[in-house]
Structures are given as C-alpha cells and as structure tokens.
Design a protein that fits this description.
alpha+beta; about 65% helix; 6 helices; 4 strands; single chain
C-alpha cells in the first residue's frame, strides 16, 4: 500500500465518516445568519420599544397613535402572550413560563440549525426565537412582560401586546402556512 493510499484511507476512516455525516445534518452557517439577520434585529426592536415605553410612560398611561384604532398603553403582563394565564399562582406561573420559554429557545435553535429544515421554516423559527427571547428577558429581569400595543375600535378590544408577542404570532403563522404549502406541493407531486 502506498503512502498516498494510506493517507486517503485515513482521511475516510469509518469514525471520521460518521462524524462528517453527523456534521452534515447541521448547518451552523444558516443558524448564525438567521440569528444575526432576523432574530437579533427583531429582539433589539422589541427591547428598545419596551425600554422606551417603560421610561416615558406611567403604568396604564395611554397615548393614541391612530385615534379610535391604535393606542400605546403601558401595562405589565404577568401571563403569556396577550395576557393568557395571568391568573395562575405567581410562583408556578413564573417557573412555568421561564421553563417553557427556555425549551422553546432550544427547539427553535435546533430547527434553524437542522439542514433538513426548509429555509422558509428556519426563517419563521428565527422570528419566533426573537419573540421568545424578548419575553424571556422581561420575565427574568422584571417578573412580568411589558405590553403596550393596544388595537381597538368601537366594541372591539384586542388584548394589549408587544413586539415579541407579534413576532411569535407571525412566526407561528408562517410555520403553519409553509407547512401547509409544503404538504400541498407534495400532494401534487404524489408519492415518489
């Protein structure tokens, strides 16, 4: 066996091949790009808007942005997005939401980094990740989430929310839409 063939065999040993297969299942370049270009800007917008509202408004102060339709109303939400579960016992609620948020951060990060996740779905997961981290920061730092976007008209009153809540909602809607479109495309092509 020549020196060159020995070197080639060593480069493609079974242990190294399995490592290469495992590494090829992940795309850390896409993870970094999605986090840098999508998650971080949305997260920064969320945190800066909450910082502005909390430092320029008194609690429950309202400022009309579009009279009769859209207000900036400073509230502190102990519950989930759109004030869900706000009536749960405080200690349980805090532990539950911090644990749930931490798990969601891990799941979204894994989905973004997995090579088998479609780029469109990874994009949507990066949006959800931004919202999840934004509200997690509030929970850890304040014990409650700053909400301030209040949409209403006549008898219609939508719960007060924030940029992070909007990011989570939009990201989940995108994931559902992309999944549905993928299933439709797969059904048109048929079993292969």
């Amino acid at each position: 066996m020549s020196l060159e063939s020995t070197a080639a065999a060593a480069r493609h040993s079974p242990a190294e091949t399995s490592v290469n297969v495992k590494q090829s299942a992940w795309t850390f370049g896409r993870l970094l790009a999605m986090v840098g270009l999508i998650t971080l800007p949305v997260l920064i917008l969320d945190q800066l808007s909450k910082l502005y509202v909390s430092s320029h408004f008194r609690l429950f102060e309202t400022y009309p942005l579009i009279p009769g339709w859209l207000d900036c109303t400073y509230t502190l939400n102990p519950g989930a997005a759109f004030s869900l579960f706000a009536t749960m016992p405080a200690g349980f609620r805090e532990a539950f939401f911090i644990g749930l948020s931490a798990a969601a951060v891990v799941v979204m990060t894994v989905l973004i980094a997995r090579r088998s996740t479609a780029t469109s779905t990874a994009f949507a997961c990066a949006v959800v990740l931004a919202g999840t981290i934004g509200n997690l920061i509030d929970r850890v730092a304040r014990g409650r989430v700053i909400d301030f976007i209040y949409v209403h008209h006549d008898a219609f009153h939508y719960p007060v929310f924030n940029v992070a809540d909007a990011a989570i909602t939009i990201g989940v809607a995108m994931i559902l839409l992309f999944s549905w479109l993928h299933e439709r495309a797969a059904a048109r092509i048929g079993p292969g």
